[in-house]
Amino acid sequence: MGLGPRWSPWAALPFSPRSRKGGGGGWGLGGLKAIGWILFAGVAFRLLCSFSSSSSLSPDIKEESDVDTTCIGKCDLFNGEWLPNPSGPAYTNSSCRFIDDHQNCMMNGRPDTGYLHWRWKPYECDLPPFDEIRFLGAMRNKAWGLIGDSILRNQVQSLICLLSKADEPVEVYHDKEFKNRRWHFQSYNFTVSLVWAPFLVKSEVFENENGESTSEIQLHLDILEPTWISQYERFDYVVIAGGQWFLKTAVYWESDKVLGCHHCQDKNLTEVGFEHLYRRTLQEVLKFISSAHHKPVVLFRTWAPDHFENGEWFSGGTCNRVLPYKKGEYGGKYMEHVMRGIELEEFNKAVTAANSSRDVVKLKLLDTYSISSMRPDGHAGPYRMFHPFAQGNKDGSSVQNDCLHWCVPGPIDAWNDLIMKLVLN
């Protein structure tokens, strides 16, 4: 039935104003009972929602209700779809000068721009776009540390570009190779540190930027990487991630003895599966976070998918798609499911252990895998460098594709939208 001009929302309630017309209907006993039942139902519903939504969070973190959902337990930020976004990205490579050349797809000649016009929409709630002024205001006098590999460096570029819309950052530190860097936002006394720790545990690496190695990586499973451990107490917020580097050939050490090797062809060493080694590393990392005296808010980011087709990065693999996948269209690769499964298992164990011991652990999951797996169109691809096509050369077969890292701006901006939602709520 249509809601015409005569309809009133009060008419359906026993204590409506209409019941007060005529012979002494007033509020009456029935009306008071109805009020009591409505109040009781409302309180009970709020308690039910509060219980269901907080049961999966660490003890000291409560997530605020989303504006457009009745019960926050219904909103899974990581389950949704990519929708068209005519307004485009929050910044461009022209407005942001902090994009590294190998992620600056527009500067490197990428001709299409459709990949810039999508936004992530969770099914049961909205994900607001990054609000740089609100974020910086909340982070006044605080420090962030983003710890991991080049994919995390990729995300930091996006974050710095978003924040630079409100305040110009000053780079106050970088190492010789620009792998460890720090920016300061003077108006807010806010710092962002990028900490290079691709394995999260101590390692000696002998390869160049193109992945060419002169010797096997030496990996110490029982020693966390000193670079990030030494800075940990400086940070109020931490984003930590890893995984991809565990697929590389490496010799593994424990208690100053060689435990074995992954994928060593010419050494008489026990072959050790990287799955066990990644699990072991995460256990060490999460144990440190849980037991450390200093308790920053820690966001653990899950596996970052690649979209190489017709080969891998070293064998001519490409990523030429120009549209996102629809929900369920992309099943993912076996390796991705194995590694993400390990991450989720170890994260949940850490949260459960913290709950049972009543430890104060500010640990949140930043599960970017699903939203990223649907974006094969957003990688740098052949535009990790100034592409020969941009110069009129039609033979681009020799150009190595990057189907792991993301164009900036691009889909990786949504990772920072998620961070803002998780932290400020």
TrEMBL record:
Pfam families given in the database record: PC-Esterase (PF13839), PMR5N (PF14416)
Family matches, as PANTHER family: PROTEIN TRICHOME BIREFRINGENCE-LIKE 26, PROTEIN TRICHOME BIREFRINGENCE-LIKE 9-RELATED
Any one Gene Ontology molecular-function term assigned to this protein's record: xylan O-acetyltransferase activity
Name the record gives this protein: Trichome birefringence-like N-terminal domain-containing protein
GO CC annotation terms, alphabetical: Golgi membrane
Annotated signal peptide: none
Domain of life the protein comes from: Eukaryota
Keyword annotations: Disulfide bond, Glycoprotein, Golgi apparatus, Membrane, Signal-anchor, Transferase, Transmembrane, Transmembrane helix
Subcellular location: Golgi apparatus membrane
